[in-house]
Structure formats: C-alpha cells, structure tokens
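We keep the chain:
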Amino acid sequence: MNTLVAVAIAPCGTGAEMSSYVGEVVQVIRESGLPNRTNSMFTEIEGEWDAVMAVVKKATMVLAERGIRTEVVLKADIRPGYQDMMHGKLERMEQKIALSQASHEQEQENQENKKEGNDAE
C-alpha cells in the first residue's frame, strides 16, 4: 500500500550543530532508491509501507547503532489507490489556490464594474 511519510531523524545530546549527523541520515534515505525530498524540517519518503519503514529504520540505526540517542518524528499518509502523492498533493493544492485566486479576482472585477455603473447614474 502506497505510503508517504515525513520523517525527522536527529541525534540528542550531541551539541548544537547536528547537520553532519542529519546529513548521514539523509544520505541513507537518498541511497534507498525510493522517491524522497528533503526540506529544512523533514525528509519525505514515498513507497510501499514495508519499504518506507525499512528505510526509516536503516536511517535511524545509522546513529543509534553508534550509541547516539536518536529522536524520530514521523507522520504517515497511507492512501490506497494513489501514487506519487509527494507531488500530486502539492499540484492539487496549487490548482485550488489558483482557482480561488481567479475567483477572487473575478469577484473584485465584478464589484468594480458594479461600482462604475452606479457612479454613472
């Protein structure tokens, strides 16, 4: 079943700078072959549930197996019948924003035309 997760895997108690540790984690995820995307807060991974969870475990163990206390924050979206949710969700949202904006602009134009009609009387 297709699954999209947003995961943050980070060390605890290693000091203020975590980028090298997080970089190791992200590298494992990127090497998995599953579709993924990293931003400043999370890395998204998409694929079949078992494959995604295996990648999350492997990425977590990169730190934990070295004796580093490791924190994992994970959010999952399991949506039967859907593929490429990582991109599709954003595309659907952007379409709705564009429609809403166009509707708002049309409403403003109608109000301006109505006002001009009233001013002409």
